[in-house]
Design a protein that fits this description.
The complex is a heterodimer of chains A (775) and B (325).
Chain A: H1 7-25, H2 56-60, E1 76-82, E2 88-94, H3 96-100, E3 104-108, E4 141-142, E5 148-154, H4 157-164, E6 168-173, H5 180-183, E7 188-189, E8 191-192, E9 195-196, E10 198-201, H6 204-209, E11 213-221, E12 233-239, E13 242-247, H7 252-263, E14 270-273, H8 288-300, E15 304-307, H9 310-316, E16 323-331, E17 337-348, E18 370-379, H10 393-411, H11 415-421, H12 439-450, E19 463-464, E20 467-479, E21 487-493, E22 496-500, H13 510-522, E23 529-532, H14 549-571, E24 586-589, E25 592-595, E26 598-604, H15 605-611, E27 617-622, H16 628-631, E28 635-647, E29 653-663, H17 670-689, E30 695-696, E31 701-702, E32 721-725, H18 748-760
Parallel strand pairs in A: 1-15, 13-14, 17-18, 22-23, 29-32
Antiparallel strand pairs in A: 1-5, 2-4, 2-6, 3-5, 7-18, 8-9, 10-18, 11-16, 12-13, 12-15, 16-17, 19-20, 20-28, 21-22, 21-27, 24-25, 25-26, 28-29, 30-31
Chain B: E1 5-8, H1 12-19, E2 24-26, H2 32-37, E3 45-48, E4 56-58, E5 64-67, H3 72-77, H4 79-84, H5 86-93, H6 98-103, H7 106-110, H8 117-120, H9 163-169, E6 173-178, E7 181-186, H10 187-190, E8 209-215, E9 221-227, E10 238-247, E11 250-259, E12 266-267, H11 269-275, H12 282-292, H13 304-321
Parallel strand pairs in B: 1-3, 2-3
Antiparallel strand pairs in B: 4-5, 5-8, 6-7, 6-8, 9-10, 10-11, 11-12
Helix pairs in contact in B: 5-9, 11-12, 12-13
The chains are: A alpha+beta (775), B alpha+beta (325).
GO molecular function (chain B): FAD binding; oxidoreductase activity
Domain FAD-binding PCMH-type (chain B): 1-220
Organism (chain B): Novosphingobium pentaromativorans
Amino acid sequence: MSIAKDPKGLIQGAAQGLMAKAVALAPDAWVPGGVPDPLIGRQHGHVGRAVSRIDGPLKVSGTARFAAEFPMEHMVFAAILFSTIAKGRIVTLETARAQAAQGVVEVMTHRNAPRLSPPPVFMSNPKAAGGDNLPVMQDDRIHWNGQPVAVVLAETQEQANHAASLIEATYETEPAITAFDEARSHARPAEFMGEPLHDEKGKAETALSTSAVRIDATYRTPRHNHNAIELHAVTVAWQDGVLRLHDASQLVSHTAWSLGQIFGIPEDKVLVTSPYVGGGFGGKCMWQHHVLAAAAAKLCGRPVRLVLSREGVYRLVGGRSLTEQQVSLGADADGRLKALIHRGLTAKTPSNVMPEPFILASRSTYAAEAIELDVHSVELDLLANTFMRAPGESVGTFALESAMDELAEALALDPIELRIRNEPDVDPLSGLPFSSRRIVDAWRAGAEAFGWSRRSPTPGSRREGEWLVGMGCATGTYPYYRMPGGAARLTLTPRGASVGIAAHEMGMGTATAQVQVTAERLGLPIDAVDFHYGDSRLPGTVLAGGSQQTAAIGAAVIAAHRLLIKELFDIVGNDSPLAGIKPDDVACRDAGLCVRDDPERHETYASILARAGRASIEVTGEGPLPLELMHWSMHSHAAMFCEVKVNAITGEPRVTRFLGSFDCGRILNPKTAASQFRGGIIMGLGLALMEETQVDERNGRVMNPSLSEYHVPVHMDVPEIDVIWTDIPDPHTPMGARGIGEIGITGTAAAVANAIYNATGKRVRDLPITLDKLL
Amino acid sequence: MTPLRYARAADAQDAVLQAQAGARFLGGGTNLVDLMRETIERPEALVDVSGLANGIEESRDGGVLIGAATRNTAVAAHPVVRKRYPVLARAILSGASAQIRNMATTGGNLLQRTRCAYFYDEEGSRCNKRHPGQGCDAREGFNRNHAILGASSACVAVHPSDMAVALAALDAVVHTRTSQGERQIAVTDLHRLPGDRPDIETMLEPDELITAIALPPALPRSTYRKVRDRSSYAFALVSVAGAVQVEGGRVLDVRLALGGVAHRPWRARRAEDILRGGAADRAAFAAAADAELAEACALSDNGFKIELARRTIIAVLEELTGERP
């Protein structure tokens, strides 16, 4: 079912329409972001400082407790048996031996599992968290190869694992569509976040046919799997009618609501906490293991710990889908784009809503006169695919930016110059102004720092011993998002302040950056601010995804801050130096309030609270609707530079240098930001050179479900990575910042591929670029 | 993992006696324990032999005797090995990770089992190595890493060890013990080609324990080159172990072995025969590589290995016969 036809989707659509109307009626200054966040102008405070992560000592000392480490009394351990066919039904499921095995408490199958509603799939509700909407262990139907068919509960993990191996399942198979090529003829127009993945401006085909220079090429990217170092895990108990989950999550509130729907209980009877997450990347949303663990705990009446094995993550948690992208570029002799066509195919399943949206970056990157973008999708009988770091842009920029390199070659033009010549003044499709776009600055600074001028434009012209050396570049880009639903609780005491919001720290440094921001906003020292997060009881529905969490939290804290100032003025009284001042005229400094134009008139929070006899003030503010997105085209950019060497004998490609030059608005914490950028680039190196989920198309089975056979970069594959940034605040976002979590992976694969072309003269259009493609 | 009995062997004789009762020998456990977790191996009992002979001694003939329980790290770091058998040190250091090499024993490394994905998928795939007669899903499936030499219709898997390839090139000899006595087996004879019984991987008897590996005196120059998909922690797509003795531009003696191409470390005797006594030049190297690979046979995904092996053989020979760096 398409989202637009879903009734809840319709309600969402109506709300978006209302927002668009509100913009039309409201004066600009009212629009959030219209008046820049005052923090943008502050240069020497906590914001922008390289503060070390506050969770660092907890992690290196092993005292940070993760989902699989919470002890519960009388807890049992779970092991899952996965199906070995792609489609059909279970005929026999022999569990007697498992049931009789030592330590086994219960074996759950579709025969005895509690009756449950299907998971609400993403987008079907603002709080829906399901990767798909398939019923969980409710019948004998098999929908993908690797679907859980039984859960063994035992006193120890080893006993559970062993007992699971004693279960014998037989199946009746039905014809399944597991091969991409077989499904090709059934491709249908794709939708993403409720909107068609199709854009047109002018007549692109006509413009292409009359262009002086044209490039037509097809690029392919394979499936990828999530491999966060922390395995997916939940520790679950039913306590006095409340379903309690210690989770590894990037959406605690969504998960609480969704589990409430599945189990038929109110969301406030589900408590999800997730204080630490060992990597999310889009994979730590709600999957069957949550439901199975909660159902199993209900069935056996004891707390359950369910930690997926690494194989289990491959069988049960979706990854990135494959793409086949055709890019056609038409340019005049000066390299100005007349036509940009980017279209192609991806695959999803009948039960999810996630076609890999690989055209997103092509919407706003270049000023082509005519543009045509389109994604069609086929449906396969596989595990539901899902979000994975920069869904769309990661693989879309590989195609677009490889094609731009091919065009530069055809034009005999420097690839950076080609990009600068096609820099748009306004958003090429929507015509909206850019909130802040300084990609050209990023290009120039990056080229200087990387030594781009030393690149030979002639492929294969630099050799050092056995190694061919080359340089390449590409544009990375990721949009600014801010989703509705952000809300924060702000508590002020004489000792300081604390922020509470149902947001997430998955290792990005969110808690640290938000402590810096809040301390700055309130004029407090860093150690006087606490940040509480990762708890579904806290305010807000905040997804740690789309690189939007920092903005969502920021906007909510701004709202709460306004309420706090108002409350303080309600109690400030006539004896304060602030008496007679309006809230709009104050600023925060030195643990208190002052008059903005007369900072000497100051009173500490402690003094205000003491005079009023108050121990604390607590307010909850809601971030406004993200109307800034209706007024501006908001995107971050990166100029990516890569140097590779390719062994002339063996074809082995090795990246020797990489530099990312970023334009992402204000950088809140250079230390954590640099790690985010580098981490994204490293993941991009894996995308370029090695990552590939091997699905056997005969039966839809993942054949490399382990980190030994599914390759990600090892330390030796990762060279020195320089990251620099413009640090130019975006005047239309909270703190002047745009998200930084995903952009590092974008553009990277193309920069590698383009460098390999420069080194060898070989253009590889199929990822990953393994040595056999370079022999 | 299936419940099992575990005992430490007091000495080799004790180990062999215990193995007669159906126990498997446990070295570093870096492969066997993995396979037990995957329920591919389900031994009822383990006899831990990791505490047995672990010395490295120089022998009277100018060779070296390595106790079977010597850790891979210790072998690779040993000064005599580094000096006289660089091919062996390099092969070991190119495999696995430091942590795994710290655990893995020399005997155990030789007896690693293939990493074929279909062999590893006990529940979902057919494999003649796990279940003779079941069929082979690799032949028509993902076989990029699979054999180009010596494969059979029953099995196209490759042997994963780097160390074993170096030992094959060094003419190493395995010392073993059973309840019946002791014997010696050339490393090149230890592993079988798959034929119609790919489940039988070596010529060892079920209770036969590897006690030591003997290296004869080395040729003056040797090296190991491993080609793989990432810089570390990946099995060889192709590897070449080579040792040569050159005088006056002619090859007096040569040993070559290939890894990642067959069900066992592939001693390249055809290539050696062409090289021995001939000119040490690129044309001869190419002719030797071509002869060795003449019967190579590609599957759907691994055809590149034939050219890769050819290039790597030539490059190793050029390196070993060229100017010393």
